Amino acid sequence: MTQDTQTQDLKQPIGIYILALLFMLAPLGNIIVSFAGSGVANWYHPAEFAELVKTIPVADWLWLAGIFIAGLALLMRHKSAWLIAVMALLIVLAMNTYRAFTIDDTVLNPEFVRVQILISILVTFSVLIIAFYARYPYLDRRQQWMFPTAHRYDVKSPVIVHTGGELAGLTESVSTAGIRIRLAKATDSLKGKTEVEFTFSELPGLNKVKAEVIEFSGDVLRLKYKHFGWGARGVLEAWLKSKKG
């Protein structure tokens, strides 16, 4: 399976994209609802609107910006971006909760308060929705927190999996982060194992590579490398590119 095919196999996080759109529109909607309920005549005229914008406190600009940033982050299909979105939403929720208990009700626009409450409820449910989508098949399981997802190559190459005995297999796809192996025959010897070692038959320099078992089903084994240094990654990347060429 190529990297492009694997990406196509991922499901679209439609709920996340809807949330992103709502959060990006929420700041403007909140301001419009607030001004419309302010009782100010002709609030929608550009000059009057500009004057009302100047009256918005800095604290309100901060949480409105947080909502918008969360929306932008959710559009990026990566777990790091979604974590940033969750953190921004939790900060917004904390700010609104604090204001609800400390601010003078007599100086607040009731419409503005209602909108803040609605947004706080939306934020609470949104964190749960994001948590639901932050998994496979909506996110690539190979994603790293800080680095781009390693390119996966369709390479058929013999490997030996060391499990006390030796299991022969053939790679189906390989990257500098992990490997998918088709074993020569189905086995139960890997059931319950969380770590194994394997050797690339064509790369004697990569002997007994330690790996975490991500998936095992009979004759299919998917591994993620452990303690795989930059030198080993460089050797593997060069070999993969030569096989592709």
Give a structural overview.
With 245 residues, this protein is an alpha+beta fold. It has two domains: 3-133, no CATH class; 158-244, Thrombin, subunit H (Beta Barrel). 49% of the residues lie in helices and 17% in strands. The chain has seven helices and six strands. The chain has helices spanning 3-9, 14-36, 46-54, 58-75, 79-102, 110-133, 230-244, and strands spanning 158-162, 166-174, 178-183, 195-200, 209-217, 220-225. Strands 1-2-3-6-5-4 form a six-stranded antiparallel barrel. Strand 5 (209-217) and strand 6 form a beta hairpin. Helix 2 packs antiparallel against helix 4, helix 2 runs antiparallel to helix 6 (110-133) and helix 4 (58-75) runs antiparallel to helix 5. The protein is elongated and about 80 Å long.
Describe, in short, the structure shown:
By secondary structure, the protein is an alpha+beta fold. It folds into two domains: 3-133, no CATH class; 158-244, Beta Barrel (Thrombin, subunit H), CATH 2.40.10. The chain contains seven helices and six strands, in the order ααααααββββββα.
